[in-house]
Amino acid sequence: MTVSITDVARAAGVSASTVSRALRGRAGVSEEVRAQIAAVAAQLGYTASRSASSLASGRTFTIGVVAPYIGRWFFGTVLDAAEKVFSAAGYDVLLYNLGSPETRKRFLTNLPVRKRVDAVLSLLIPDEEEARALRSLGVPLATTVGVARDGFTVVGIDDRAGAESAVRHLVNLGHRRIGMISGASEPLHWTTPVDRRRAYLDVLADAGIAHDPALEADGGYTVEGGERAMTELLAVSRPPTAVFAQSDEMAMGALRALRRHRLRVPDDVSVVGFDDHELADVIGLTTVAQPVAGQGAEAARLLLRRLDEPDADLPGHVQMPIRFVLRDTTAPPDPRGPR
Q1: What is the pTM of this model?
Q2: In 3D, which of 24, 85, 93 has the Cα closest to residue 64?
Q3: Cis bond leading into 266, ω under 30°?
């Protein structure tokens, strides 16, 4: 039997109109009730009537999503959370994986999503020319990375504040040789590594610690890259006693390299990451937690609200909370040095 919106309302103990508002991301529904309704809808297998809604609104009921690396944990987690919100509201997702400069340029030149989608969730950081191209689509736009930009709803975090808390933690423990594993080389136009590096430099300066370029290495935001970068840092004449990795995946690679070199964490080298990856707690990684899935879900809800309430005064920028999570990979430096 086909599950109706009335069935969902009855099972959730709310009205049908509340179910409609919740699943379309509209205002007037608490997050707790919205989550409950979404869970009930998923359990019952409820799908909004696409044909009737399309005829009435002229919409395609499809959301375009463009991402640079869907295989990366961050982007995959954002996409999964956003897709669940879109699906619960009766929307399909049309995904474009733009992992190279060539595919990115071709997409932004041809804009194959034109007239095929009702809104676009971009996990890219467009330059001004690319942003203009996306705005020309005439549909609501949202992103979960980068800074405020005209025409885009931005849902993100304060990268500088998060990185500052990580590096300051290492300084407060007494470390003075603090390395950093970053990912500044990619993806294109990504502001995150720039902001987190700026925070690293600022905290060092505030603590009176001279910056040593030899203590920076590019890990490409991957586990393998983090391992390579940590190996580079261990090869310098005066290796770091602590390392800030700009992502948990790079931190995991750093831990693997330290283990391979028979160095103890945190006795010989402290490591702090960023993200609170789903495996961070398993390995006891000290890190900066950000709501990755929450950013994807919030961006999706705001896009749906812009579709349903085009004249509503909605925020152009939403800053999600972050928190420092102390676990097992950081400690004061051993005055005797690595053993």
Answers
A1: 0.81
A2: 93
A3: yes
